[in-house]
Design goal:
Layout: H1 3-7, H2 12-73, H3 78-83, E1 90-95, E2 98-110, E3 113-124, E4 127-137, E5 142-146, E6 148-150, E7 156-158, E8 160-162, E9 166-168, E10 171-173, E11 186-188, E12 192-193, E13 197-199, E14 223-224, H4 235-248, E15 254-255, E16 266-277, E17 280-294, E18 305-307, E19 316-318, E20 321-328, E21 337-341, E22 346-347, E23 350-351, E24 354-355, E25 359-364, E26 367-370, H5 374-377, E27 381-383, E28 386-391, E29 395-397, E30 401-403, E31 420-425, E32 429-431, E33 448-451, E34 455-456, H6 466-469, E35 471-472, E36 477-479, E37 482-485, E38 490-492, E39 511-523, E40 528-530, E41 533-541, E42 560-570
Parallel strand pairs: 5-10, 5-39, 8-11, 9-12, 9-41, 10-13, 13-14, 15-25, 16-26, 25-28, 26-29, 27-30, 28-31, 29-32, 31-37, 32-38, 36-39, 37-39, 39-41
Antiparallel strand pairs: 1-2, 2-3, 3-4, 4-42, 6-7, 16-17, 17-20, 17-21, 18-19, 20-33, 22-25, 23-24, 34-35, 40-41
Length: about 575
């Protein structure tokens, strides 16, 4: 009997068959495992490639958005650039492993504030990502091109924020690029900054020292460095907006005054007086006024300068400040003085079929006087409606100007108040000097009549009295408006560096100047210097301006930011 039978073991051939089967099974298992591992690895690689493609496509789309927004920041006027189809409204960017196409367009208006759409499609391999962003021009409270005061043809001097002043609006200051490098914001004492302050300069000097260390505690809203400049110093940007404004204003509210009264250093102007009557907002327009200008020598101690046109803010010249003005005696009869409802001045801005809310526009190719005789108006100037006044010259504020409608307990226009005033001047915007309101009667004024503004120094004074001719602004003086100054600064005229105070009432007090709105100025205008000369500032941001209710799109910030909930990115449908 074979030994394998005696031992009970399987036949050797059977053992070899079992071993072979085990090998085959093992190979099958290993093959399945290998295929599975290869499938997992391939899938993981595909996912990695897809993820990389998605990321590259998304980064490319964001790159297109950044390029578009940068291009927008370089434009003198975005709406004009879109209307003209300027190069840059669309483009293509190529990267090593991706590309994008982008486009800029006007989407809509929020009130009168334009909302732009930036669309950018990024591609990488088979992956695509779309970025759609609705952006708006950044709105600040107070934008300053140069935070210094002109004091000569090419010289500037420091201007200080001082104790007792309240700056309750975001403040943006352009970089001065001075050498040696000193801080661009000068402080004397403890003014109160209640909202964020942004400066374009670095916090550190070239030598590495901290310029702001000793005043950091004053900025209750925080201070931020290395921020983009505003475009208010760009003369071409201001001119573009003025030209577009003139083109869109109704012809009957475009004025070019002609001064004719025989006064010293005559300047032509239009006088605008705002009031409310019978529930309607109105404006009294007096054309062909003649301002008696007053110009002091370059060695005098006042700060009455504007930017010399064509110098990009590097040279300055004295301008003739307001003294008083005359109007033709027959202005009413000849139609040179008329009262119109503000709604008669309304126009609707339209761009490529997209329309804004209507608002009033008055354009003056010359100077403007805002305000009138308190004896006639018996109150401050009151604006009921939405209106913007644009001047190629100076705008002189000769009274407190407030908007009609509800105000909050702190005096600010309520958030639902629809009334607003916008001012844009290529010269300066200044409150007038009442100390120079005495009439020069040395020449014949036949055919013209003296037009008093502000308040007489003595209540009840009549024409001919010294106290009638010598006049002052109210205390405090308030201006509720969005102020844009392209050729100089916002401030007060005839504020001097010496002992004599140009801005004073009978008791010589320093008064407060309230602004409830916003300010953009190419270079700082002086408001006050000592405790007896000029004004103390109390500036407050009108939050309604963030909604774009000022007609004419007069913003000059070069920064564009996403609107609230304005960012959208997704995979486009194929």
């Amino acid at each position: 009997m074979p030994s394998y039978l005696k031992s009970g073991l399987p036949h050797p051939g059977h053992r070899r068959g079992i071993a072979l089967a085990l090998v085959v099974i093992s190979l099958g298992i290993l093959t399945v495992l290998g295929v599975g591992l290869l499938s997992v690895a391939y899938g993981a690689r595909r996912q990695a490639v897809a993820a990389k493609g998605e990321l590259s496509a998304m980064l490319a789309a964001e790159g297109g958005y950044e390029k578009a927004v940068f291009w927008m920041s370089q434009q003198q006027d975005m709406l004009s650039s879109l209307q003209q189809g300027s190069p840059g409204t669309s483009g293509v960017l190529n990267f090593p492993d991706s590309s994008c196409t982008y486009q800029v367009s006007l989407f809509s208006f929020v009130g009168t504030r334009p909302v732009f759409r930036v669309s950018s499609l990024g591609r990488s391999g088979l992956s695509e990502r779309q970025v759609d962003v609705f952006v708006v021009q950044a709105v600040s409270g107070w934008d300053v091109g140069t935070c210094r005061i002109p004091c000569g043809a090419t010289e500037t001097t420091q201007v200080y924020f001082v104790t007792g002043e309240t700056i309750d609006m975001p403040l943006q200051i352009n970089r001065a690029d001075d050498n040696p490098d000193v801080r661009d914001l000068s402080v004397s004492g403890t003014p109160s900054f209640l909202q964020p302050v942004a400066v374009a300069e670095s916090r550190l000097t070239q030598g590495g020292s901290d310029k702001y260390r000793d005043i950091l505690t004053l900025f209750h809203g925080g201070i931020y460095f290395d921020q983009p400049n505003t475009r208010v110093t760009d003369e071409a940007s201001v001119q573009t907006k003025v030209d577009r404004f003139r083109a869109s204003t109704r012809a009957e509210y475009c004025f070019k005054p002609v001064g004719q009264a025989p006064v010293t250093r005559p300047r032509s102007a239009v006088q605008l007086e705002f009031f409310e009557e019978g529930g309607a907002g109105k404006v009294r327009i007096t054309n062909h006024c003649t301002v008696r200008g007053f110009s002091q020598n370059y060695d005098s101690r006042t700060y009455d300068f504007r930017i010399r046109p064509g110098t990009n803010g590097t040279q300055y010249e004295r301008y003739d400040i307001y003294t008083y003005h005359m109007a033709p005696v027959d202005a009413d009869r000849t139609g040179q003085r008329r009262v119109v409802p503000l709604t008669d001045t309304y126009v609707t801005q339209s761009f490529n079929g997209v329309q804004s809310e209507p608002g009033g526009q008055i354009f003056i190719n010359g100077d403007v006087i805002l305000g009138g005789n308190a004896d006639w108006q018996a109150n401050d100037q009151v604006v009921k409606g939405r209106i913007t006044v644009v001047s190629t010259g100076n705008i002189w504020v000769a009274d407190s100007i407030v908007v009609a409608g509800t105000h909050d307990a702190d005096g600010m226009p309520a958030i639902d108040n629809p009334n607003v005033l916008g001012l844009l001047a290529q010269g300066v915007i200044k409150v007038v000097d009442p100390g120079l309101s005495t009439i020069d009667r040395s020449t014949s004024l036949s055919g013209f009549t003296y037009v008093p503004v502000c308040r007489p120094d003595r209540s009840g004074a009549r024409e001919g009295d010294r106290d009638y001719n010598q006049r002052h602004l109210p205390d405090p003086t308030a201006l509720e408006a969005a102020i844009t100054v392209g050729g100089g600064g916002w401030g007060a005229e005839n504020v001097q560096r010496g002992s004599y105070g140009g801005r004073k009432e009978a008791d010589g007090r320093q008064d407060y100047l309230f602004v409830r709105g916003s300010i953009s100025e190419a270079i700082r205008g002086v408001v006050g210097v000592t405790n007896t000369d000029g004004f103390l500032k109390s500036y407050h941001m009108d939050r309604r301006l963030l909604a774009g209710i000022v007609p004419g799109d007069i913003g000059l910030r070069g920064k564009y930011v996403p609107a609230p909930s304005g960012w959208h990115d997704y995979r486009p449908d194929r």
